[in-house]
Amino acid sequence: MSTSVFGQSIPRVDGPLKVSGGARYAFEFNQSGQLYAVIVNATIGIGRIVSIEATGVEQMPGVRAVISHLNAPKLTYSPHKGVIDPAVGERLRVFQDEQIRFFGQPVAVIVADTLDQAEHAATALRLRYDAQAPLTEIDDPRAQPIVAQQTAAANARVAADRERGSADQAFADTDVKVDAIFRMARENHSPMEPHATVASWEGDSLTVWSKSQYVLNERAELAAIFGIPPENVLVICPFVGGAFGTSLRTWSHVGIAALAARVVGRPVKLALTRKQMFLDTGHRPRTDQRIAIAATNQGKLTAIIHEATAETSRYEEFIEGITNQTEFLYSCPNVRTRYRLVPTDTSTPTYMRAPGECTGMHALECGLDELAAALDLDPIELRRRNEPTVDESNGRPFSSRSLLQCLETGAERFGWSQRNPRPGSMRDGRWQIGWGVAGSTRGAPQAPADASVRLLPDGRVEVASATSDMGPGTYTSMAQVAAATLGVPVERIKFELGRSDMPTAPSHGGSWTMASVGNAVRSACLAAQDAAVRRAVEDPASIFHGLTADVLHWKDGTLGRKNGEGPRLDQVALLRGGMPIDVRTTASRSTDIANRYSMYGYAAFFTEVAVDADLGIVRIRRMLGVYGIGKVVNPRLARSQCIGGMVGGIGMALMERTVLDQRDGRPVNAHMADYLVPVNLDVPTLETQFLDEQDDAVNPLGIKGIGELCIIGVAPAIANAVYHATGKRVRELPIRIENLLGA
Fold this sequence. Notes:
The chain is of the alpha+beta class and 743 residues long. The chain has three domains: 31-132 and 192-242 and 247-278, Aldehyde Oxidoreductase, domain 4, CATH 3.30.365; 161-176 and 179-186 and 283-445 and 595-740, Aldehyde oxidase/xanthine dehydrogenase, molybdopterin binding domain (Aldehyde Oxidoreductase, domain 4, 2-Layer Sandwich); 447-588, Aldehyde Oxidoreductase, domain 4 (2-Layer Sandwich). The protein is built from 17 helices and 33 strands. A seven-stranded mixed beta sheet has the order 3-6-1-14-11-12-13, sandwiched between helices. Strands 8, 9, 10, 15, 16, 18 and 33 form a seven-stranded mixed beta sheet that branches. Strands 19-20-28-29-32 form a five-stranded mixed beta sheet, with helices on both faces.
């Protein structure tokens, strides 16, 4: 592989399209004869629809259809779960009965000539309900926790209960210990691009232009809903304007758009409002966790108990890997984890950036900080004394492990040695200054993926895979892999994605796109080189005709003899007057490698906060993230991911909280005025540093995902810094002013 492109901070190849407005998002794929659809949402938390007064609405100007359970076609809804779908149970079947399962459930859709007409008609539709009192919170006295039914996605090991050793007994027998409850609020995805779908039928074939992180799953889901072959569905999504997990599933609005288009016989555009995105497109679940940790006086861990309880919907069970890291991140002979769900009358949660890990690591890393304080030990030193030599959850060696190096490198760069360990001891005028640290880890998964490569006679190279790009720079990084493998300039590479008729790719989530699709691109490029060699020796017009393939090889974009003798041919000369070379290959991690090693990425976060001593206002002053993620394809793109993750972690720690009205489950702050997210003034100096980490086992490119690793440890680093500044332990997120006021 050429090193001239791989590992370089080249600008985004799709940057000019985005800044010029040329990049087209789902909402912008207008179709001839298109109509507009607006969803009507339920205004009760649970119950049933008694009546719908639609006659007057149907007569309003421009209205073409009012579709509800009263007149909607009965849909097939064949069994289907995407390979990353974490939910167990019966997915929401829109307009198939009168039952209301949560506040905001779609109960009707208006189709009209214009958006204004559809919106006006939606406000005029009157429904009567038979309402009941919903259960909306996991600490409701009526709540009944249950054991999760299944293991989640292949890259997220989940189990209800695990134990090694005798954690409860060891905890009881140890003198130095902490036992605390950590609470995390529900969070909603708030990407810049709202969900939107344009649907069009031609006979029994359906085309949708839809915001999706997983076009193949969307194709399969739509085929299952309507009972048609998957090959009859084409999903197109060349650009995603942010998603963070909310577009991994196919939510009800996609099926509604397709249903409306079928009913009216015209293309239909449907876009959710910002408020509607809080109702039925997933969220990070509300979670309570107990962390109990014990250690000897010398700081050696003797017991860890991690128990988590999280919300799910009553009609589906959403599970995530909240307690996974606790089983292996630190050396401890006695570990017990437990995970329970509480069914609530709300919509189903879903993946949100670093699902499960982000939640569980907060409790673990804050618990370790509390233990370090109880031992009067530096929190980095506590982690150093409990560094494992193998993955103690399964006995496997780590393919690479760089947590201590991340901590030590970050401590030196941050100036950790200047920290006064006594809480409340560092001041800057009226501001109380605190420094906090937290570790981070996430699996380094790789899913099977396909890619195609086409070498053209004019020197251009077309590469394709049915992945997506929600912002990390997939177009650019894949072009770099292809350019580096083929030894050609990146300007000659055209990478295409976002269509369900392209070579198979996994979901664009789970931090495995680069490892999965990137290695598929590499494999396809190598196959294209082999095909070029075969073409060269088989073509009578070739100067290499008659040679055996084993004496030729492709190097730096040209084909020649391995011994370096004689001429070399570049791509244009090789294919002049001939047909393109087309190949398609699959790449996956071997079972042997997968079973031999534990493979993870690591990070450490250092944060300085300032807390107003009188008002309790928290300001982040600076933050450093140090990452061990193997080779970095494009440091510029990787830093962008890290900055985004750190900003998201600031939101989790200090701002983001969806509040439900317990009377009906209504999100009371379902708008950007009251659902707070970080803005420029909230974001401090953010630094990133990548370790020079070599991991030859993880995959041929030696890369690990970073999109989720870079948020996992941010909130606990902030919470630990707030404690160091004030001496007050806040065990709920987000940390609010009222948590810090008073004694």
